[in-house]
Specification:
- This protein is an alpha+beta fold and 172 residues long.
- The chain has a domain of 50 residues.
- It is built from three helices and four strands, in the order H-E-H-H-E-E-E.
- Strands 3-2-1-4 form a four-stranded antiparallel beta sheet, with no helix packed on it.
- Strand 2 and strand 3 form a beta hairpin.
- Helix 2 runs antiparallel to helix 3.
- It is rod-shaped and about 135 Å long.
- The two termini are 35 Å apart.
- About 5% of the residues have low confidence.
Length: 172
């Protein structure tokens, strides 16, 4: 009787020996003559990123406290309004003159409440992709002759004038 270790060893040896032992002859290497090589091509999209830069005028605003027109207009309007009427009417005329004078003074002062601006040149850039299609070789269809038989295979490289082939003999 065989024990488990002997069975495992026998199976392992058979697996390692493989087809060569079963057929009584190992595979061998030979060379075949290449008769034609055709590149296999495909159209692919190719992206070519590059930077585009330009100078751009940028307007800046500074907010100031230039309220001189508003204040001066309000004072003048109040003084002028104070000269009209009497009692409660004088008070109403003074308030109305102050409001009207402030509005006129603000408008004459530019009405911007002291905004001042200036312009600078700033560099702006962006990445732009130029996309184009091109034909690329993705493999080769190789025709070769071995012992009078024409065979076609596909490869990732051009094999040259001859091709290494593995020959295996099996019983019929």
């Amino acid at each position: 009787m065989f024990n488990r270790q002997q069975i495992a060893t026998t199976l392992l040896c058979a697996a390692i020996a493989g087809p060569a032992a079963a057929h009584g002859r190992p595979d061998r290497v030979d060379y075949a003559r290449v008769t034609r090589v055709e590149p296999i091509t495909r159209l692919v999209e190719v992206s070519d990123p590059h930077r585009e830069c330009w100078d751009e005028a940028v307007e800046h605003r500074e907010r100031g406290d230039d309220r001189a027109g508003l204040v001066l207009g309000g004072i003048v309007g109040g003084v002028v309004g104070n000269r009209f009427g009497g009692g409660t009417g004088r008070t109403v005329a003074t308030v109305a003159g102050t409001i009207l004078g402030a509005g006129i003074g603000n408008a004459l002062g530019g009405g911007r409440d002291g905004d001042r601006g200036y312009v600078t040149e700033e560099r702006r850039c962006r990445t732009v992709d130029d996309v184009h299609t091109e034909q690329r070789t993705i493999g080769y269809r190789v025709h070769y002759r071995y012992h009078g038989e024409e065979v076609v295979t596909q490869m990732d490289h051009d094999p040259g004038r001859r091709l290494r082939v593995r020959v295996s003999v099996t019983p019929d």
